[in-house]
Every structure is written in structure tokens, then in C-alpha cells.
Amino acid sequence: MSAIDRRVVVTGIGVISSIGVGPKEFAAGLREGRSGAAPITAFDTTGFEHVNACEVTDFEPAEWLRRTPADGPGRAARFAATAARMAVTDAGLDEDALRDRRGLISIGTTDGGSREIDELTEAEVAAGPEAWDPEIVGSIPAARLAAAVALELDLPDADATTFATACSAGNYALGNGLDAIRLGETDYALCGGADAVCRKTFTAFYRLGTISPDVCRPFDRNRQGILTGEGAAVLLLESLESAQARGARIYAEVLGYGLNCDAFHPVAPDQESIARCMRAALADAGVRAADVDLISAHGTGTKANDVTECRAINDVFERRPPRTVSLKSMLGHTMGAASAIAAAACCLAITGGFIPPTIHHEETDPDCEIDCVPNRSAPADLRVVQSNGLAFGGNNAVVIFGAHGGRAA
Predict the structure, then answer these.
(1) Four-point Cα dihedral 111, 175, 233, 154, nearest 10
(2) Where are the alpha helices (DSSP H) in 91-198?
(3) Which of 74, 285, 324, 407 could form a disulfide with 113 if both were Cys (CB 3.0 to 4.6 A apart)?
(4) Would you list the DSSP string of 356-372?
């Protein structure tokens, strides 16, 4: 079978989010339009005027992790390892079955172990670098995220890579797994992203003036910025042939993806580049823009980003865009986990027959020109769904998912 014929499907989902842990609870949170916004508990917010974020508050890693200590190797790495084990269990597999097959682990992140950098900085300020905990130091490198998955599942021969392409990193990781299976280089791939709320990133966005004082309102006329968030999602990918041979449940097919890096500006998005990335993804997926039923937008809730993305969407879809939602209205901006969690949401929406809402919405900005499915989820027969991931530095990544049963004509 040639690479162009080898179809790739999602058979397992693991997700940790502020609106639900596990695919079932996460799907319920999406349907209900839950909000994860609440005052920050991860660090002392004294001196900050705005103090909300979307933290994961009901995460019990000991319920899932078998080899990874519940208090190590760093919060983001624990997220990644737990989501991966969830995905494997959800797919009806076990680590023994995976160990005998060629595997790939691909995890995206923005901050890696930055939550632990916060801890070391506090220790140094209080008592000097001599107070650093060596175990915390060892948990900082971003590479620990993919390594944590391999160690937790005892997969020493799997190709483990961490992508640090910021807020689109989850989609980069998915594209990496898709290519590897298409080309016959691996039998399965565990792909996703993970990040934890940390003082460093919150402060950076705060100083940029992009932290919302209360909630995130993407596409709304009165939006005021982002909320930082945290969590992880990992999808188990395998070939359609493999999934059918073992009678696996199939959430969705990964039809294709597109990547580009325009390096236009450190933080400002480029409309033309985003449009090129979407067109590349559609071409790789072999579908027309008119076939797309839903777009999960990057949708940060900042003035410039929402307008630029919506204009690029209207350009590609010739001013007839499908319904376009932002999950960040519920989840906040989970950084490197954002597009991975969005991918999980897209697959669950396809299977569940619904469109998640854009919550906290009052009036659509006329410069956005989309139907953002305000405040309430909607039933829908979704055949093709597009998921956008856009990052600082012009690192754009778009993934196209399809309902199992065939591509759009």
C-alpha cells in the first residue's frame, strides 16, 4: 500500500482539561459549554490586577499513572503521561501490545517544565541557588514530556519527540504522527500536547496587555484578551487497516494537515500566511473548502488575532465560511496543548454529532464575520472538521479530520 493510500484514524483519546478529565467528561463539558475560568491558585497573584485562569482542579494522576511518581516528573509531563495512558486504554490496547509494534510518541508544548522553573526561582530568591532541588531541575527540559510518555508506558524503543512550536505545537505533533503512519515508518503514534499554568507565561501575556480581566470572549465586539490555561490531550493514531483488523472503535479519520512558518512578526499573525496554511491542509486532505462543516479556530480572544484569523478564513472560504468556534472561550489558552485538546474536541464532536459553543458571547465583532455558535452547543452531522493552530513567530499548523466512512467527494 502506498503512502497516499494509507489512511490514518484516531482510535483513542486521552484528555485533561479545566472542563473535564477523560474523553467522556470532556465531551460533556463541551456540550454544556462549561467555563474553566477561576482565580489562579498555581502561584501568588499579589500585584496583578487580573488573576483568572483556566486551571485543572480535579486531576488525580495517581488514579492513572503506574510507573510515574504522582509528584514527579513535573506537572506538564504528568499531564502528558496521564493523557497518553488514557488514550491507550480508550483505544482498547495495553502497553504489552504496543511494545511489540513500531511506535512513535510526539508531544507538543510551549512551556515544557516552566512551572518547575517558577519553583526554582522562588527557592533561589528565598535562599540562593543552593536551595534548588536536583529532581526539579531535571524535570525542566521540554524533552521530558515525550520521555515521560515512553517511561510511563514502558516503550523504550518508541521514537519520542517533543515539539516546541508554541501554541500550534499539538498540531505539529499530529502531523508528525500522520506522516509516519502514512509512510509506513511506524505502526501507531501517540500524538498531542501538554502545558501547565505558570507564572512566567501568565506574566508575559500580562505585560503584553492581553490578559482578560474576567473571561475569554473570542470574536466578541467587547473581547479583552486571553486567559491562560493548562491541560493535555493525546490521540492514538493507527492505520485504518490496523484499526479494522482489531475491530477498534474509530473516532475520526485524520485526512491531512498543513504547516508553515512565515516569521512575519514575533507575536502578530499574518493573514496571507494563515490562509496559505489552511489551503495546504485542505489540499493534503484532498477536500474542498466547501466540504468543511466546522472550523475549530485558534480564536484567542485578542483584538488583532481574532480579526486576522477570521479574515484569512473568509479569504479561503470565499466569504462563505462554515461555523467557526473557539474552545478557548471555555478552556482558556492552554498553550502547546491548545491544538491537541482542540483535535480531541473535533473528534468527539464528529462522533457525538454536535458543535461546541463559543461561550461568554454577547455581540459578534462585525470585523470577524463568522457564525461562532454563541453560548449553546448545536446538533450537527459533521463530515469534515478543520482545526487551526497559530503560534508566535508565524508557526501555523492546520489539521483536517473527517468522519469515518469516506472523504468528501
Answers:
(1) -90
(2) 95-99, 114-127, 134-138, 144-152, 169-182
(3) 74
(4) --B-S-SSB-TTT-S--
Closest residue by Cα to residue 408 from 195, 253, 295:
253
> Whole-angstrom Cα distance, residue 376 to residue 111?
32
Q: Exposure pattern of 132-142 as b/e (b: 16+ CB <10 Å)?
A: eeeebeebbeb
With a cut of 50, list the residues of the chain below it in pLDDT: 1-3, 406-409
Half-sphere exposure in the Cβ direction for 137 (13 Å, CA): 8
Contact 343, 170 (CB under 8 A): yes
Q: How far apart are CA 342 and CA 340, in angstroms?
A: 5
Integer Cα distance of 235 and 159 in angstroms: 16
Is the model's pTM score more than 0.85?
Answer: yes
Residue positions annotated with a catalytic role: 167, 298, 333
Classify residue 379 by burial, with Cβ atoms within 10 Å: 0-12, 13-18, 19+.
Answer: exposed
Residues found in the chain: 409
Q: State residue 383's pLDDT score.
A: 98
Tell me the pairing of strands 378-379 and 354-355. antiparallel
What pLDDT score was predicted for residue 109?
Answer: 96
